[in-house]
Structures are given as C-alpha cells and as structure tokens.
Amino acid sequence: MTSALRYPGRAGHVVVPRADRRSMWDGLGLYTPSRPRAVWLHRVASAAMRLGLGAVIAREPWTPPEDWPLAVWRREVPGADTLLGAYERPQASRDGGAALLGGDGRRVALVKVRRAPAPELEHEALVLDTVARARPRSFAVPEVLASGIDDGYAWVATSTIPRDHRSVPDLAAGVTEEISELLAPLDLEGDGDASHGDLTPWNVRRAGGTVWIFDWEDAARRPAGADATLHHAWMVLLGVEEPRACPADAVRHWQAVVAGRSTSDTDHDANLALAEVLASLITA
C-alpha cells in the first residue's frame, strides 16, 4: 500500500501515487479537463505538483490493483518502469481502467486494461495501427507499443501524448471527414459513415499545434456527421460552444445511445443533461 492523491477531489477517478515532483506532475496529466473552471483549477493543481506540494497532500491510502500484470507491462514496454498514475473508470457498469507508466523522468506508455476477453481493445489496436499507417494530415494518434492478454486481463499499451494539452473547441470539419476517410477501408460494424464513436472533449486534445485523438475502441459505422455532432453536444454542455443545428439522423443516433446507458452510473446526471442538449440541436 502507498499514499496517493485522488484527483480531482476525494471522489476523483485519477490516482497519483506519492513520488517526486516530476512524477506526480506527469501523473496528474491523466486528467483531461474541458470546463473553463476545471481547466483553471487543473493549472493550479499542476503548479502545486511542480512545486513539490504533491508529496505533502498525497495522504490517501491506495494499492494498485494486485492482479494487474504490471510486471508484464514493464517487460514488454522498454523504459516503462514506474507507475505514475492510474485511471479508475467511474462507471460501475464499465470494467477496467488505465495505467500511466514512465521512467527516467519521462512518460513512456498509457496502458488500457480490461478483464479478458475484451475484443474492443484488440479492435482499438487494429484501428490505431490503420490510422497511424495512413499518416493523417489534420490530427495525430498514439502509437501502439504492445498488447496482450495476461493474468486474466486484456491490455493495449500506447505512446503518450504531450503532458500539456487542452480541449479543442470548434473542431474543424476536416478532422471528422478525414477520420471517416481513413477508417473507410476497415470492416466496421454498423451502417453509414466510418466514425471514431467517442469523440468527446477528453478524447480530442490539442498539444502545441497538434490535435491528438485517442480512445478508438468504439470505431464503427454511424449516420453521417455522428462524430462532429457528439463532440459539439459535449462542448455545448460544458459551456464552451453555442448550440448549432446538427444532422437529425446523427442526433437521433446519439439520443438512442444515451437513453440506453445505465441509470446507476455516477455519470447518469451528465447523460440526462447531454440528452437535453441533443434534443436542442435538431432545431438549433
């Protein structure tokens, strides 16, 4: 057992083990704030880590999941010697989490992990490899470093995005169009245009002049404009963008998806609010 900082707040889903200032600053980068107030508070928290205050306030007892195959990850991903942070999925209905690994003062890999079998992770690795090989013009994706099934867990390790990143308001239409173009050759489930399927503000980040897109496990075919519609709906909910009309079929698709989500998860209120926003986009 070790001491850790749970972030943001005591109910936060990002856990940063007590360590040196650089490691804790890196670990805090697992959090991807999008609301203006959350972005400001995250800057303050990051500054506190860089000043070395993290070791002072990291007092919550925490033990990494004992059955995670950490030794395998360290062996399969060179340089990934230290657990810098962990992401615990807040939804009780959704299994798994993620681990941020590093070494020698740098972030090395982000490992997504689920109880096996987890075909969505194998699917994500395939999609990421396909997109990376195509060398997208308008965005970048992490590189798949390794993947496997060990000790009852499926996992995929990818390279990390730069530490300082922010959400991307007014996502350029060319980005979602290129996503459809690059995924088109794949044999994806569903009907319609090839899409990312989870283009939320925390899965689309800008670092410097580069837009990074990750979490591709939901890539499938959906109504035209589905990716852009979902991203815009979340940005409206977060107070970053003003509502605008979106393709009706895409809106109805996401309304059905949101309506089918578990009512017992901690993000249920957010899903109710998202449903209200989606309804407003048809006539915006």
Provide a descriptive summary of the structure in words:
The chain is an alpha+beta fold and 284 residues long. Helices cover 35% and strands 23% of the residues. It is built from nine helices and 13 strands. The strands form three sheets. It has an eight-stranded antiparallel beta sheet with strand order 3-1-2-4-5-6-8-7, sandwiched between helices. Strand 4 and strand 5 form a beta hairpin. Helix 8 runs antiparallel to helix 9. The longest helix has 16 residues. The protein is globular and about 50 Å long.
SSE layout and pairing:
Elements lengths: L1 E6 L6 E4 L3 H8 L7 H15 L3 H4 L2 E3 L7 H7 L5 E7 L8 E7 L2 E10 L3 H16 L9 E7 L2 E6 L7 E2 L5 H11 L9 E3 L8 E4 L2 E4 L6 E3 L3 H12 L10 H12 L8 H14 L3
Antiparallel strand pairs: 1-2, 1-3, 2-4, 4-5, 5-6, 6-8, 7-8, 9-11, 10-13, 11-12
Largest β sheet strand count, sense and barrel closure = 8 strands, antiparallel
Termini, distance in Å?
52 Å
Helix-strand topology string = EEHHHEHEEEHEEEHEEEEHHH
Query: How large, in whole angstroms, is the Cα Rg?
Result: 19 Å
Number of helices in the DSSP assignment: 9
Residues in helix, %? 25-40%
Mean pLDDT over the residues: 91
Low-confidence stretches: none
Broad structural category: alpha+beta
What percent of residues are in strands? 15-25%
Main sheet: which strands, in order across? 3-1-2-4-5-6-8-7
Number of strands: 13
- What would the principal axes of the Cα set say about the shape? globular
